[in-house]
Task: inverse folding
């Protein structure tokens, strides 16, 4: 059984002590494709550098809504230059986060829209981070800047209205550790709602470890717990989840 972890951050400093050994081990244990995701200029550069060492890893570049404080047009131009690297398969993670940052909503929207524009110019999909900002995120995608190559709602909030609208927009829904959490009461309803052919799985490593390893440093091997939970909810085997999500993820990233 092989898995595609559609979203991880091996550019994070939490992997500095054992990154290379760990990545080799992860591959041996069946995670044979990984998307290494940037969230600001430095981490985007690092995402490409690390992915360049492995055939089974690609990268995305972008500035997250939690990293826009000093961001100007020249930084966005640098993201665009980085995105021309052959290892880069998406722009992200980008989006809106009113949970961590309520004070700069207009700037968040502006930077999000500009990065969708970059994705459109380079013919790339987007990886969306949205938290406590469902209405504004959908408003941008529907009315302000259409993402031509579509993309992914990463670590998708377990919000049934968002899921319905995201599917209408023809986006993929990526589930992470939270669907396994005992207190995530919407997981069942939300996972049932997403057709298997629009579903992806991810770890968001080093964050958001699923049950039963919640609270530890996350890595791509734990994607199996999320896959197992989805299999249980959908009444299919984990092999089927692994296989179809692998196909889906390759398709959206054009790998
Ligand atoms: Ni992330």
Result:
């Amino acid at each position: 059984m092989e898995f595609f972890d559609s979203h991880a951050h091996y550019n994070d400093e939490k992997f500095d002590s054992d990154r290379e050994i760990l990545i080799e081990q992860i591959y041996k244990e069946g995670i044979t494709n990984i998307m290494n995701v940037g969230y600001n200029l430095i981490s985007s550069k690092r995402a490409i550098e690390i992915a360049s060492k492995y055939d089974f890893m690609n990268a995305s570049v972008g500035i997250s809504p939690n990293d826009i404080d000093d961001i100007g047009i020249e930084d966005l131009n640098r993201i665009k230059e980085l995105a021309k690297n052959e290892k880069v398969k998406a722009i992200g993670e980008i989006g809106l986060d009113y949970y961590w940052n309520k004070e700069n909503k207009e700037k968040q929207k502006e930077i999000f829209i500009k990065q969708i524009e970059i994705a459109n110019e380079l013919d790339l999909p987007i990886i969306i981070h949205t938290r406590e900002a469902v209405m504004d995120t959908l408003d941008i995608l529907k009315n302000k800047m259409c993402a031509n190559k579509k993309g992914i709602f990463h670590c998708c909030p377990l919000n049934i209205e968002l899921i319905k609208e995201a599917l209408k927009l023809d986006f993929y829904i990526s589930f992470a550790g939270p669907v396994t959490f005992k207190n995530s009461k919407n997981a069942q309803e939300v996972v049932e709602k997403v057709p298997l052919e629009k579903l992806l799985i991810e770890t968001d490593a080093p964050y958001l470890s699923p049950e039963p390893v919640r609270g530890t440093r996350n890595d791509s091997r734990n994607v199996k717990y999320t896959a197992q939970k989805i299999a249980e909810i959908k009444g299919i085997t984990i092999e089927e989840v692994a296989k179809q999500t692998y196909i889906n993820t390759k398709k959206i990233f054009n790998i």
About this structure: Residues 3-252 form a domain with the TIM Barrel fold (CATH 3.20.20.140). Residues 7, 9, 37, 93, 204 surround nickel (II) ion (CB under 6 Å). Residues 105-122 form the longest helix (18 residues). Residues 192 and 234 are 6 Å apart (CA to CA).
